[in-house]
Amino acid sequence: MENKEISQAVIGRLPRYFRYLGELKDEGIERISSQELSDIMHVTASQIRQDFNNFGGFGQQGYGYKVEYLYEEIGKILGLDKTHNLIIIGAGNLGQALANYMNFERRGFIFKGIFDNNPALFGRKIRDMEVKSMEEMEDFVRDNEIDIAVLTIPKTSAVMVAEKLVQNGIKGIWNFAHVDLNVPKEIQVENVHLSDSLMKLTYNILRFENENNN
Ligand code: NAI
Fold it and tell me: What whole-number distance in Å separates Cα of residue 72 and Cα of residue 80?
C-alpha cells in the first residue's frame, strides 16, 4: 500500500464504508460493483473509486470489489484488526451510557476501567467494571496498556486530566468535554459534539423549508 498522506475527508468516510460492507458481508454478499455500492450508500460511484484509489484501488476492472476483502482491508486501515484498551473518565450519565454500549467491543474497543472523582460513585458497578478513584488512574493506565481515554467530564477539569493521561502514555483521547485539549501533536484527539450534529440537522430543516417556501 502506498504511504501517502490521505485527506481527513477520505478518512472520515471510511467508517461508513466499513459499516455498509460489514452489513453486506453479514448478508452473504461476496462481490459488489462501485455502482451498486453507490446506490446503497448514496455516494457517487466515482467518489467511491477515488476514495479507494487512495489505498491502491481494491477492485478489479469489470469485477467489482470483493466484499469481505474490502471490509477487512478498510478495517486494517482504521486499525480495527487489533484490539484497543480504553478507559472512561467521568462515570456520569454519558460515561455510563458509553460503558454500557456493548457494540464497541465487537469492533475491538475494550473498556478496561471507569474513573470518577466523586467518592459516592467509587465501587459502583457499571457492567463488569467498578468505578475507581482518580488516584488509581495513572497506575491503571500504565499497568493495563490503555491506549485510548474517553473524557466524559466537565470542561473545567478536562484539560488537566488530559495532561495526566498524556504523561502516562495514552495515545488517543475521545473527547466529549466541550473544550479544546492542549496536547502534544503525537496524541490523537477526536472531539465529539453531539450538538454539532443537531445543529446541522436544524440547518438542513431550515434550508429545506426556505427552498420550498420560495
Ligand atoms: P454528569 O454530571 O452526569 O457526569 C460527569 C461526571 O464527571 C460526574 O460523575 C462527575 O463526578 C465526574 N467528574 C467531574 N470532574 C471530574 C474529574 N476532574 N475527574 C474525574 N471525574 C470527574 O454529566 P454527563 O451528562 O455525563 O456529561 C459529562 C460531560 O460531557 C459534561 O461536561 C457535558 O457537558 C458533556 N457532554 C458532551 C456531549 C457531547 O456531545 N460532546 C454530550 C453530553 C454531555
Answer: 9
| C-beta of residue 25 within 8 angstroms of C-beta of residue 67 | yes
In the block, cell 491506549 appears at: 147
21 sits in the region (left: phi over 0; alpha: psi -120 to 50; else beta) called alpha
Pocket test for ligand 1, best of 176, 191, 198 (most atoms within 8 A of CB): 176
Ligand 1 center to 209 CA (angstroms): 35
C-alpha to C-alpha distance for 202 and 104, rounded to whole angstroms: 28
C-alpha cell at 144: 493495563
Give Cα separations from 182 to 23, 66, 76, 188 (angstroms).
38, 42, 29, 11
Following DSSP, what letter does each residue of 82-118 receive, concatenated?
S-EEEEEE--SHHHHHHHH-THHHHTTEEEEEEEES-
Block means of pLDDT (10 residues each) for the chain, length 214 residues? 74 95 96 93 92 82 86 94 97 96 90 98 96 98 97 97 97 98 96 96 96 84
Confidence (pTM) = 0.91
Separation CA 115–CA 131 (nearest Å) = 5
- Residue 132 has what DSSP assignment? E
**Distance from the alpha carbon of residue 175 to the mean position of ligand 1, in angstroms:** 11
Chain Cα centroid distance, residue 112 = 17
